[in-house]
Design a protein that fits this description.
The protein is an alpha/beta fold and about 325 residues long. It folds into 2 domains: about 200 residues, 3-Layer(aba) Sandwich (Rossmann fold), CATH 3.40.50.1100; about 90 residues, Rossmann fold (3-Layer(aba) Sandwich). It has 12 helices and 10 strands. The protein has a 6-stranded mixed beta sheet, sandwiched between helices.
Length: about 325
Amino acid sequence: MTETLPDFAAVVAAAGRLKGRVRRTPVMRSDTFDRRAGRAVVFKCENLQQGGAFKLRGAFNALLALPADAGVTHVATHSSGNHGNALAIAARALGLACTVVVPEGSSRVKVAAIEASGARIVWCEPGLAAREAALAALVAREPVHVVHPFDDADVIAGQGTAALELIAEPVDLDTVVAPIGGGGLIGGTALAVRGTLGDCTVIGAEPAGADDAWRSFMGGRRVGVDAPDTIADGLRASIGVRNFELLRRHVDEVVTVTEAAIVAAMRIVLEDLKLLIEPSSAVAVAAVLDGRAARMGDQVGVILSGGNVDLGQCPFLSGRVEAS
């Protein structure tokens, strides 16, 4: 492992940088949800973060961690939505230009948010290879500093501050659950948990149609997913190199959930907590509800990663009949 891995100290340092820069999002619970789940569950509501997702933490930390003499004036990334918006918000706050490479077919709501936050959009074909190629072409022709969406030590450390805040609440946790896409959130979450609660169980949740992290975890070797098929658009990326190493070292279990379970979890959270969450967030909720995780404890914390929902595409808000 030649790439630099963040550690718990990096998460603590990120929390210091981010003070006053990001919202300390609320932690919520519901008696009705607890009865459904058969356990006590608290939710860290990053759907209420500025930009509608936890991604602002990592993006801001990556920019604030740049050396003062780095001379960066223009930052860039590739993103299907939330990270691109987060980087645009952070860049604008720090007086930097921002360009985001966005694959065709991305969520209209998320693309509109990127544009509204002041970033320039460069379109590319869907798929990780096309995204990386388009970003490489941008780097070749313009002097930009790249902030990777997840495989970046400062991004991972920033994402871990959500769990650090959750753990600081007056709640007793024996399990923390977070969704897995590229792995920035689960990596940072695991670092925060291991540095504070020690033997608390860390569980990652993933759509069955984008199960590269589960297959990597079970096989002990990082693998990608070629054509992820899931409503959880924020979790379609394959797990990164640093992210898999943190998963392998610090996460206890990875579970997958079905598309029907994801949609059901979105609806349950709206009913029980009055919160609209995006499908990527609902993956972690579904993992708590379906009971398949072998190590799910009685006191559970869930990171609700985001709430950027295209209401016209939401199955139970658009008027479409849900699949059984």
